[in-house]
Design brief:
Blueprint (H helix, E strand, L loop, with lengths): L9 E5 L1 H6 E11 L3 H8 L3 E2 L4 E5 L2 E5 L2 E2 L17 E4 L2 H11 L4 E11 L2 E11 L2 H25 L1
């Protein structure tokens, strides 16, 4: 009797810059349409998500700015394009809801991470609103404060 494995999502790439630059309002998980060489490159971790953004055009969602660098052992009959536009798969009513939200001032769609889920590549996207400069300074100040407290505790425990 075979037991069914429950696979936890494993991260491929994170967009840490997005959390610094935006407030996340809503999160969605979308499928990504990829070519074979892209899947192989993702398994090797050859992806950069920091400059990526999501565009909605004619009722479809696309991931732009996501760089998937091809492996050196790519097939000879395939011409890999690292900056290829990838289609995102999401339910139609979610796309329509996001379209109306994005048309409002200040909202954008940002990819948060890429991960594996049941053998498929998924992209977490967020409806985001840009942070002001003073909000970013507050984040930096809080981060530095936590770091100093941790250093003090670490040196005290020695």
């Amino acid at each position: 009797m075979a037991t069914k494995k429950t696979e936890t999502p494993s991260r491929i790439a994170d967009n840490k810059k997005a959390a610094f630059n935006y407030f996340f309002e809503e999160r969605y998980e979308a499928g990504v349409v990829l070519h074979g060489w892209e899947v192989k490159a993702l398994r090797e971790g050859k992806v950069q998500l920091t400059d990526g953004y999501v565009l909605i055009k004619e009722g479809e969602m696309f991931l732009l700015g996501c760089q998937i660098n091809p492996l050196k052992t790519a097939s000879t009959h395939v011409n890999p394009d690292a900056a290829r536009i990838k289609k995102l798969l999401l339910k139609k009513n979610d796309i329509e809801r996001l379209t109306t939200k994005v048309e409002q001032k200040g909202y954008t769609l940002v990819p948060i991470n890429l991960h594996w889920k049941n053998g498929f590549v998924k992209c977490d996207i967020a409806l985001a609103k840009g942070k002001a400069e003073h909000d970013k300074r507050d984040v930096i100040k809080d981060r530095e404060g936590k770091r100093e407290v941790e250093r003090a505790l670490k040196s005290r425990n020695r």
